[in-house]
Amino acid sequence: MSPQPAKMTPQQARGLAEYLLADLQMEIPTTIRVIEAAPANRLDYAPDAKSKNALALIRHIVVDDAWFLNCIADGAFVGGTNDQSDACGIMTPADGSAKYNQVVPAAAARVRALPDEKLAADIDFFGMMNLPAVVLLGMMVKHSVHHRGQLSTYLRAMGGKVPGIYGPSGDTQ
């Protein structure tokens, strides 16, 4: 039997959370730029039948990023999101960027306000694993960047331009 990893202290969790929240804060403007770069007249574009179309990806990024952060702040992952419904209010890239800018920083602030002990406490992730809240925060950042990367690969095929992400792109030089 392999040894169990050492538990994270509340102080370690706080340090890691502050690093990850600062990282997320730096990613937010980039995510908004990618969403805004999607041509509004081509949101039905998907590279494959198994892929989400551009509008579905924008909705997923916006709705799920906020949902993931709020679940961490609440200390429980319950339900899921309805990110593919018109009811989410996202019909255009402009809708998506405005909503993202409204809901994601607010949800991140809820996580930042958690006591150190809550950041170190395990949260059940749909019965698949129990991880400290701060580790789930790291997963959230990776999830967001992953889907933003998907959307960025759609942009040129949609007739759009790829904004700078971690430096200039071929379209911004």
Which structural traits does this protein have?
single chain; 173 residues; mainly alpha; Four Helix Bundle (Hemerythrin (Met), subunit A); 5 helices; 5% strand
Q: What is this entry, summarized?
A:
The protein is 55% helix and 5% strand. The protein is mostly helical and 173 residues long.
Layout of SSEs?
Blueprint: H1 10-37, H2 54-74, H3 93-112, H4 116-120, E1 122-125, E2 129-132, H5 133-154
Antiparallel strand pairs: 1-2
Helix pairs in contact: 1-3, 1-5, 2-3, 2-5
Describe what you observe in this structure.
By secondary structure, the chain is mainly alpha-helical. It has one domain (10-154): Four Helix Bundle (Hemerythrin (Met), subunit A), CATH 1.20.120.450. Helix content is 55%, strand content 5%. The chain has helices at residues 10-37, 54-74, 93-112, 116-120, 133-154, and strands at residues 122-125, 129-132. A hairpin with a 3-residue loop joins strand 1 (122-125) and strand 2. The radius of gyration is 17 Å and the shape is globular. The chain starts with 9 loop residues before the first helix and ends in a 19-residue tail after the last helix. The model has no long low-confidence stretch (mean pLDDT 93).
CATH topology: Four Helix Bundle (Hemerythrin (Met), subunit A)
What portion of residues belong to β-strands? under 5%
Number of spatially distinct domains: 1
Q: Topology as H/E string?
A: HHHHEEH
